[in-house]
Write the structure tokens for this entry.
Amino acid sequence: MSFNLKNIISIRDFTKSDVEYILDKAEKMEPIARSEKVCHKMDGKLLGVLFYEPSTRTRLSFETSMKRLGGDVVGFSEKQSTSVQKGEVLYDTAQIISQYSDAIVIRHDMEGAARFISDRVDVPVINAGDGAGQHPSQTLLDLYTIKRTLGHLDNLKIALVGDLKYGRTVHSLVYALAMFNVEMVFIAPEELQMPVEIIDDLKKLECKFTLKSTLLDNLEDIDVLYMTRIQKERFPDPKEYQKVKGQYTLNKSNLEGTDIVLMHPLPRVDEINFDVDELDNAMYFKQAFYGVPVRMAILDSVIENSEKGD
């Protein structure tokens, strides 16, 4: 297998072979991610991180990944401490960071921001979330979690729950799952259901899916339950958020005795009670760890491809 992408902007830029390449490479990276081995592959390399929106897991796991590979990190985690506050535009900021680093990871509230700068800088760009758009590295770690837990990605029934309208994690994930033989169930209030354009794309791809509005009545035969929070910050009208918040909540008794793999991109708010953490099939913290080997595989691949093109 080979991997030829120079930027990681959208999961839709990936082929199934590209996905499998990263997942296979991530498995080889796991011993390094667990501190069982030391890697110097990125000695002397710098990763630029531009986080215009808050992040815990994505930012820290990218930083951890680069350091586990032997490299280092420069950049910012909040725009308030940068020249953005003085009026500096995204183009100029990206140009400057590209002079200092060997690759850029960006999270921005504007959909399309990552692709915009990837067309204008000379180093690889990785999209760490652009508004309600895409989050490809999260998708890859989600697939990796499923594969490491169940051993395969085909012949599964996967339910995605919560904010399917604004949730960039699920937007990316459904396109990736469409590459495999899976059945999807979209569980959300009507006003937060999967966007029509994505539904239309899935129909064209001849994917099997159903739309539901209730959670606990729809867990039969589910292999993977992917919960998401209702994202208050994405709602243009706070009153609309109040109407739908707290509609889906899981506790230990809902899943006890089942084999359902429970996932969540985190942070959680009120959709998963803390007693669920005790269950062996609650995978969200392990899922967060898997972000390190997956992002190590991504960084190694795109920086290596960039050097080939020099």
